[in-house]
Amino acid sequence: MSRVKLKTLLDRSIKNMGDVQQGVKDKILLLIRKAYEEDINVQISSGYRSDAEQQKLYNQGRNSPGNIVTRAKPGQSVHNYGLAVDYFLTTWDGAKATWTVNNDWRRVAEIGKSLGFSWGGDWTGFTDYPHLELTNGLSWRDLNRGRRPSNEFLNKGVTRKGHSGYKTYLLQQKLKSLGYKLKVDGFFGSGTDKVVRQFQRVHALEVDGFYGPSTQAKLEHELEGVAVAENEKEEENKMEENKDQPSKWAKEDWEEAKENGYFDGSRPQDTITREEAAVVVNRLRHNFREIIKRNEGTIENLTKAIQKLNL
Ligand SMILES: [Zn+2]
């Protein structure tokens, strides 16, 4: 029996999570990935729940068939605010859900807590083992009154191995544009960790795999270098192109020299070789000789005219 692909678990979970807050989504996807690395298949069964969906769920076991699954009316569940998810484990091949709260189940809760979630399994009274919420201690009553966890809390976490999110995505993009080989997927896994450490080693930074201020500054600096080099290359290319056009100041002379047959009109800004110079010099010499030959009589007459004037 082959193992279910990580991507399958992620895709199914993204679909089931629906419209949860981005911070929740980022962290849950990371949780699934981390658990997968530890040979645990975890999948999300639900996330965001609209008021209508909550009502339907509330009705279950009350005025519709089935067991009672929630005590929360619309607006009374953290799910209604996109700040909670429910999870379950799957069989090795991912074909079936398993709901036994075993060590693997508790390990997933631990990973969740390390990412800032509260776990329903820790609650006294109504224990909710599949439930993870990211509210920074706010209750549904607080949320109902309009309070929300800060964006800072939702996206908290140093960008380092185990983190995921937009910041990681940007980091990966930057490393890639510097020529490092890595996947740009927003997950700070072993591959990204390796590349960050490599970058730190090359630039004599502390090799800790943390994308902290010093590494970030160095990375930005290197990227500026790349931008400058690209600009220079562009300038060079431009100059290369321009070699086929005469400079503004030389345009008329160039045209004249071309018309008079000294140059064939190609590569106006290129340097001249010795053999090319020989051709030009010979053409000039030939032309002068021709002029002198044709005007021998005229020059003699001119000399005589000047002599007359001097008398
Ligand atoms: Zn829940």
General description of the model:
The chain has 311 residues and is an alpha+beta fold. The chain has 3 domains: 6-154, Muramoyl-pentapeptide Carboxypeptidase, domain 2, CATH 3.30.1380; 166-242, PGBD-like superfamily/PGBD (Muramoyl-pentapeptide Carboxypeptidase, domain 1); 250-310, no CATH class. Helix content is 51%, strand content 6%. The protein is built from 12 helices and 5 strands. Strands 1, 2, 3, 4 and 5 form a 5-stranded antiparallel sheet that branches. A hairpin with a 6-residue loop joins strand 2 (84-90) and strand 3. Helix 1 runs antiparallel to helix 2 and helix 2 (22-37) packs across helix 4 (103-114). The longest helix has 30 residues, at 213-242. The mean pLDDT is 88.
